[in-house]
Amino acid sequence: MRLVLKCVALVVAVGSTIAGLGAPAWSDESVLDAIRKRGQVVCGVSDHAPGFSEISGSGAWSGLDTEFCSALAAAVLGDKDKVKFLSLMPSEKFKALQDDEIDVLMGATPWTLTRDTELGARFAAVLYYDGQGFIVPRNHSISSVLELSGASICVLPGSIDETAISDYFGSRKMRYQLITSDRWDELVKTYANGGCTVLTGDVSLLAYERSRLPNGADHMLLPEYINKEPLGPAVKIGHDAWFAVVRWTFMALVAAEELGINSSNVDTMKASPVHEVRRFLGLESDLGAPLGLPRDWAYQIVRQVGNYGEIFDRNLGEGSPLKLDRGLNNLWTKGGLMYAMPMR
Predict the structure, then answer these.
(1) Residue-level pLDDT at 30
(2) Of 114, 164, 285, 342, whose CB count within 10 A is highest?
(3) pLDDT at 6
């Protein structure tokens, strides 16, 4: 009898495990439920992060971060405009996430170990690979950071940038002189007036400053990065179902570009015989169901917002004042790091 009971218990346990394989590994639907109830995705951003999130005098938001939030709204609510942007100071960002004041934190925030553990955040993806670089006048005929030995460098004192210079130049036995100021705008002015050889900072910020110089075309960004600043969306730890939605919204943006689907051709692509395309558009399988999203969630993202390449171009690339090369943010097939996990 004991043997029979043990066998029955084993069968029940195995059966329960198998049954559980067909369901999501998470049970928290509170974030999705809350978003649908309020009819908006609440997105925490910076109000002056050029290329990422900015608000115009008329109250219109623009930037890579804000368009990602629009993609989330298109996926969850079917309308890219159902987003509320909450402007946050740097000191407020992670508290707002912990206190459930926002659904997702953007704000051009770098992904670090501390933020991904101690601050109660979970980064879902890298939306933009940034890093510390250098801008130099073209007439200096400098084409590489390795040619900067003996250069004077404008940098914020006590910053991560200053530490990275010490590490990079010191390990290569390269001489340098620091020109410092506690005010970024004063550093930019010093550089523009020839007070230092190069200005250093995040490449996206340097591109913005170049766009504001009266002779911006006379300045170039050197190709090397001397540290890493991966930027991306973060959600509160424990919100696993919502984390999956945010992660796969990013994947959909990149996958669409990989598949050649954009906002202009997304409807005509419905006639494509390619299985991956038809699966992406929700024609041959329901990829939304495991995420708790509509069947056409990825289609709505591309139709209303575009693919990753389109968003990059109009906010950071050639279609923007910053005119940044794709570089690390290009598709993996073109030498970059952007790579979508298989959508199947």
Answers:
(1) 85
(2) 164
(3) 42
Tell me the CA end-to-end span of the chain in Å, nearest whole number: 46
Name the class of domain 30-129+230-326.
alpha beta
- The rounded Cα 231 to chain-centroid distance in angstroms is 5
- Regions of the chain with pLDDT less than 70: 1-29, 108
pLDDT at 107: 74
pLDDT confidence of residue 325:
95
Enter the tokens of residue 126.
Answer: 């890298």
pLDDT at 21: 41
What is the spatial distance between Cα 235 and Cα 226, in angstroms, rounded to a whole number?
28
H helix intervals, the chain? 2-21, 30-38, 64-77, 93-98, 160-171, 184-192, 203-212, 240-259, 275-280, 297-304, 308-315
Confirm or reject CATH 3.40.190.10 for domain 132-227, answering yes or no. yes
DSSP line for 26-60: ----HHHHHHHHHTSEEEEE-SEETTTEEE-TTS-
Contact 157, 182 (CB under 8 A): yes
Contact present, 213 and 206 (Cβ < 8 Å): no
- What's the pLDDT tens digit per position in 230-258? 999 999 999 999 999 999 999 999 999 99
Question: What letter would DSSP give residue 338?
Answer: B
Q: Report the alpha-carbon distance of residue 253 to residue 306 in Å, rounded.
A: 7
Q: What is the pLDDT of residue 109?
A: 79
Separation of alpha carbons 123 and 115, rounded Å? 9
State the pLDDT at residue 29.
56
Specify the domain boundaries for CATH 3.40.190.10 within the chain.
30-129+230-326, 132-227
Supply φ then ψ for residue 134, to 5 degrees. Answer: -140, 145
Please give the biggest Cα pair distance in the chain. Answer: 92
Strand partners, 53: 49
Q: What is the CA radius of gyration of the chain?
A: 23
8 A C-beta contact, residue 215 and residue 209: no
